[in-house]
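Notes from the 1:1 (GR / supervisor)

We went over the backlog. Supervisor wanted to see one worked example end to end before approving the batch request, so GR pasted a single chain during the call. The sequence is below; no edits were made to it. Supervisor asked that the structure be written out right there so they could see what the output format looks like.
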Amino acid sequence: MNVIVQRASPLPIVAFLMAIAGWTLLPVIGSIIALICAGQARREAAHRVDLADDGGLLKAAQVLGWSAIGVALLVVAALLVLLRVSAHQVA
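Structure output shown during the call:
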């Protein structure tokens, strides 16, 4: 009788924790690391049968990572607009 024991990979957990850090402690860097770890974990899970399915954790990490990057881009765009408006008011 062949029994496949599924074990958990640490990458989905690291990806999720870094995605949370991307919203709190490390705004853009944590999100980028989360997206990289999530991609590596998906590839690893696709090639190995003995890994547990952490699809929900990976999806949450990706959503948190991309949304934090999106908000960061919106903040940068808003700052650029404010700088341009304030430059025109001074001149």
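Supervisor's comment: The two ends are 81 Å apart (CA to CA).
Batch request approved.
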